[in-house]
Amino acid sequence: MEIYLARHTSVNVPRGTCYGFTDVPLRATFRREATATRLRLGNLTFDHVYTSPLSRAAKLATFCGYPAAERDERLKEMNMGDWEMQRFDDIIDERLQLWYDDFLNQPTTGGESFRDLYARVAAFLDDLNRKDYRRVAIFAHGGVLICAQVYAGAIPLEDGFKHLTSYGGVVKINI
Question: How many CB atoms sit inside 10 A of residue 162's CB?
Answer without folding.
Answer: 9
